Amino acid sequence: MKQLVFIILFLVNGTVLFAQQEKSYVKKGNELYQQKKYTEAEENYRKSVAKKEKNVEGNFNLGDALYKQKKYAEAGDQFTKLGESGNKAMAAKAYHNLGNSLLENKKLEESIEAYKKALMNNPKDDETRYNLAYAQEKLKQQQQQDKKNQKNKDNKDNKDQKNKDKNKDNKDQQDKDKKDKDKDKKDQNKDNKDKDNKDQDKKDQDKKDEQGQKPQPDKLSKEDAQRMLDALNNDEKQTQDKLKNKKLKGVKMNISKDW
Questions:
Q1: 51-138: what CATH class?
Q2: 77-118 pLDDT tens trace
Q3: pLDDT digits (tens, 9 = 90+) for 210-225
Q4: Cα(225)–Cα(254) distance, rounded to whole angstroms?
Q5: Claim: this prediction has a pTM higher than 0.70
């Protein structure tokens, strides 16, 4: 019996000692938090909840320290756990801080839901109500901006498409103009070539006709040569006959034929 009492006293003393350590870590964390040494405060809060996860004060202050370090996702996890604790007063504060964490993380719709949960646990919290209205206004502005951006994007896409179509039409027209120009140039070159060929043919024909009208001496036909020879022989005979009648002596006529 004495041994059992001793064990019970030991356990009670151990529990009291650990509780005192928890409070000591929380107290130290609070001091560091007030000094804005949020990283060191986080370390002490974590020590305070290391063996007892239901240490509400340690967990809540740990969430605050994480929030101050802009670790919004981790802070949100802490506040979500506390919001589900079943304590309305604690849940109201936890959801309020969760809403702040989500708002800082640009998660507007989620932050609105968190603020609503906070108000369900404490409808008289004007600060939460203000934050809810603020988050709703920010969401409205975001939606309007998104709508405006979408409209601008659609207008830009339409404008780009029109420009694209216009550029394509211009290119098609340029290609057609170039094709027509090349064809005209080709036809013109062909016409010029045909004209040159016709001019050359005409020159060749004119030259041929001219040559046909003026026969070359070295191209006399056999009949023409014979006629010329007969004419010369006839002239020579007549000349000899005349000389014979005059009876000229000492004179010799030499008729040379040059053909």
A1: mainly alpha
A2: 999 999 988 889 999 999 999 999 999 999 999 999 999 999
A3: 655 544 445 556 777 6
A4: 21
A5: no
Structure token pair of residue 180: 């027509």
> Per-domain residue ranges for the chain?
51-138
